[in-house]
């Protein structure tokens, strides 16, 4: 059994829960690309707040699988990056949110599991007057007092509605496929009852890809969320192909590999051919690679840094890589020393002290009690 000192400092949720369990703490698309102008959400943002003007040109949008609804190809992720201790200064997170919205983003992914992130997202959107214009991706991580008991899941959803100040959640995912045999049918019922708009399932690890693909094959979900990056292409084997075949929307997470891709290219210039896809920085290079897959609807890119947010949103405009270019981009990365061993690196290298919200506080407290 691992000792607390042996635990990875990066927040790998499956490893963390596994370690806790060992101590007796059981834890319970095919797409079509179009171009539109900047979202009206930005036009309604309150004046007087400094914000970099969005880049010129149309915003890339994608159709959600078999639906007639389109979304911007970039969304804002919030795991860890938006988790702060109560009372902490949130100005940077507010500015990150504003920069995304000003650039035309209207997809935000959050979760009641993300510490205080859900509270901040709800507060920021309400203050900006854009809550009802946003496409909210949220999650359920729930079991119940007994098999098929919906009370815990219902309490979680109601809490999310309150925090986000939304009558209806756009897509609610069975997060990490926890209690999937009970939760997905429940989500389908909630959709029919008008509580949510779309049924989703989300994963962030390759081990769950086959199960996720099975849900797609059985027509049980409308939208899925899956980890996919220029480094980790495992989703291509089954998940993305199944989503394309079945017309299921695809949100992707970890396009920047939690800061590890940037660490690999630290101090390196972009390759000359990056100008062919109008990639002005490494963030756009990595995000556009993911956007270039025809099954991907929206790429969720997280950050707590407004300057990095300004870099990320540039990926919404300009040419996107075709298959030949994506292969060239991947070959370039494979030639860089350390790329092949990226998975052995901690999440957010050199930034561990930045993300010390309620999640990290609780983990540290449990490690202390286990020592």
Number of strands: 11
CATH class: Alpha Beta
| Superfamily (CATH H level) name | NADP-dependent oxidoreductase domain
Low-confidence stretches: 1-54
| Number of H- or I-type helical stretches | 13
Using only CA atoms, what is the Rg?
20 Å
Strand order of the largest sheet: 4-11-10-9-8-7-6-5
What does the largest sheet look like?
Answer: 8 strands, parallel
Order of helices and strands: HEHEEEHEHEHEHEHEHEHHEHHH
What does this structure look like?
The protein is an alpha/beta fold. It has a single domain, classed as NADP-dependent oxidoreductase domain (TIM Barrel). The protein contains 13 helices and eleven strands. The protein has helices at 13-22, 40-43, 91-102, 117-128, 151-164, 180-192, 209-217, 239-246, 260-264, 282-291, 306-313, 323-334, 358-370, and strands at residues 33-36, 59-63, 70-72, 74-77, 107-109, 135-140, 169-175, 196-202, 223-227, 249-253, 298-302. Strands 4-11-10-9-8-7-6-5 form an eight-stranded parallel sheet. A three-stranded antiparallel sheet has the order 1-2-3, with no helix packed on it. Helix 4 (117-128) links the parallel strand 5 (107-109) and strand 6 (135-140). Helix 3 crosses helix 4 (117-128) and helix 7 (209-217) packs parallel to helix 8. It is globular. Residues 1-54 have low confidence and may be disordered. Residues 74-326 form the NADP-dependent oxidoreductase domain. This is Tat (Twin-arginine translocation) pathway signal sequence. It comes from Bradyrhizobium yuanmingense. InterPro entries: AKR2_Oxidoreductase (IPR053135), NAD(P)_OxRdtase_dom_sf (IPR036812), NADP_OxRdtase_dom (IPR023210), TAT_signal (IPR006311), TAT_signal_bac_arc (IPR019546). Pfam families: Aldo_ket_red.
């Amino acid at each position: 059994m691992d000792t607390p000192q042996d635990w990875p400092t990066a927040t790998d949720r499956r490893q963390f829960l596994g370690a806790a369990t060992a101590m007796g703490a059981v834890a319970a698309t095919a797409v079509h690309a179009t171009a539109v102008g900047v979202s009206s959400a930005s036009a309604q943002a309150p004046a007087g707040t400094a914000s970099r003007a969005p880049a010129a040109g149309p915003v890339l949008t994608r159709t959600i699988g078999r639906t007639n609804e389109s979304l911007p190809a970039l969304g804002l992720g919030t795991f860890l990056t938006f988790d702060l201790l109560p009372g902490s200064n949130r100005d940077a997170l507010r500015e990150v949110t504003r920069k995304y919205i000003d650039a035309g983003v209207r997809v935000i992914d959050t979760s009641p599991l993300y510490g205080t992130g859900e509270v901040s997202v709800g507060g920021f959107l309400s203050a900006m007057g854009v809550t009802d214009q946003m496409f909210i991706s949220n999650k359920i991580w729930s079991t119940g007092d007994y098999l098929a008991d919906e009370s815990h899941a219902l309490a979680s959803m109601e809490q999310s509605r309150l925090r986000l100040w939304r009558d209806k959640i756009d897509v609610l995912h069975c997060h990490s496929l926890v209690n999937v045999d009970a939760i997905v049918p429940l989500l389908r019922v909630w959709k029919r009852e008008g509580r949510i708009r779309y049924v989703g399932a989300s994963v962030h690890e390759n081990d769950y890809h086959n199960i996720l693909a099975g849900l797609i094959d059985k027509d049980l979900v409308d939208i899925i969320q899956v980890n996919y990056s220029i480094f980790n292409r495992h989703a291509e084997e089954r998940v993305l192909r199944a989503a394309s075949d079945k017309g299921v929307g695809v949100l992707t997470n970890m396009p920047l590999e939690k800061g590890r891709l940037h660490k690999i290219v630290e101090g390196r210039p972009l390759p000359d051919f990056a100008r062919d896809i109008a990639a002005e920085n490494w963030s756009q290079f990595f995000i556009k690679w993911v956007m270039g897959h025809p099954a991907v609807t929206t790429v969720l890119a997280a950050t707590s840094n407004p300057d990095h947010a300004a870099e990320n949103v540039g990926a919404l405009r300009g040419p996107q890589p075709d298959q030949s270019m994506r292969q060239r981009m991947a070959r370039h990365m494979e030639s860089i020393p350390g790329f092949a061993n990226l998975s052995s690196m901690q999440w957010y290298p050199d930034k561990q002290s930045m993300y010390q919200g309620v999640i990290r506080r609780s983990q540290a407290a449990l490690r202390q009690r286990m020592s």
